[in-house]
Amino acid sequence: MLPLWFVGAQGHSVQKACARGNRSILKPLNYPKILHPNNVNVNAKIKDFYIHEFLPTACPDFGRQDRGESQENYGSTATCDFACLQGLSRRIHYGKLVVESKFRSDPEKYTRYFIMPVTSYVHILTLKRLQWRY
């Protein structure tokens, strides 16, 4: 099983670095509040799925001692998994901004779409040429 302390340790290191460098040398900018408050956060759900669903499936416990080779790979795997989870979180966050921006550009059009099932309007939110780029 991947060391779960790794996920926590990575986050803790970032948190400590941010706390240390919390003093800004620039005055804060006062932008008008044009977006809704960012109160949608699925990071806890993603982490819970990763720990309780994905890891047990990807790293089954066969009831015997690890033979060594896979144990040595757990750190590298955890690093890659962590980068993927961060990328997923970032993509969700940017997606929220894109959807709100598009909605603000034409509220009537998007209100009509948003009362329909997701499969019927996802195509208007997605630019295929950009989706495959990343």
Automatic annotation (TrEMBL):
Signal peptide from the UniProt entry: none
Top-level EC class: isomerase
One GO term (biological process): chorismate metabolic process
Subcellular location: Cytoplasm
Principal location listed in the UniProt entry: cytoplasm
InterPro entries, alphabetized: Chorismate_II_sf, Chorismate_mutase_AroQ_euk, CM_AroQ_sf_eucaryotic
Domain of life: Eukaryota
Enzyme Commission identifier(s): 5.4.99.5
GO cellular component, one term: cytoplasm
GO molecular function, one term: chorismate mutase activity
Catalysis: reaction(s): chorismate = prephenate
Record's keyword terms, sorted: Amino-acid biosynthesis, Aromatic amino acid biosynthesis, Cytoplasm, Isomerase, Phenylalanine biosynthesis
Protein name: chorismate mutase
Organism: Hirsutella minnesotensis 3608
